[in-house]
Amino acid sequence: MLFKDRRFAGQVLAKKLAAYANRPDVLVLGLPRGGVPVAFEVAKALNAPLDVLVVRKLGVPDQEELAMGAIASGGVRILNEYIISLVKISDEVIARVTVQEERELERRERLYRPNCPLRDLQGRTVILVDDGLATGATMWAAVVAVQKQQPAQIVIAVPVSAPETCQELEAEVNEIVCVSTPNPFYSVGLWYEDFPQTTDKEVGDLLAKAAKNGQPISIGM
Question: Are the C-beta atoms of residues 66 and 42 closer than 8 Å to each other?
């Protein structure tokens, strides 16, 4: 399936999540930046609050698209030991990349959620939304971050995913919704007609619009 853009993909995805509509326990968390336009449409359709969970991929130096791990808000870090061993990445390199990405994660936290109070996710149904899953490293980190707060349910929802990634994550959450799992997969952007980089301004505008429309930004991680 080829999606027109992220907003359209979110509308399609929302239809698959109709069972979660109008439930007071549901919270939608978009993974910035590309996941936020998708999550906005999901939250709007479900009449649920929208917020962000900031995650950052730990890219292999000189091969940044290859993830050796990821970090998420709340001090979470996961590592892909297979990639680290395969590429022979030293502990020093891992530490350096982690520090760099932590700085960017903190910058985005300050930008997207200034003065936003933290709120416990315990007992909630949390829907994690991204624009797609390749290796799934950032989504893994997001799941771990949310698990720490003991929610009632974790749902992963994406328009498109590599088949093996969707299968691997399925065992870690209560439900996973992958609208399309093409094989061969290649990359997330291949399955969108229009796939520009989402900007910080767009993320901020969508969060503000969600709050104005009665979808309050209600959570912090």
Answer: no
Instruction: Look up residue 158 and give its two tokens.
Output: 């994406």
What is the amino acid identity at position 109?
Answer: E
Instruction: Give pLDDT tens digits for 83-132.
Output: 999 999 999 999 999 999 999 999 998 898 777 754 668 999 999 999 99
What is the pTM assigned to this prediction? 0.93
Calpha distance 150→161 (Å, rounded): 26
pLDDT of residue 117: 54
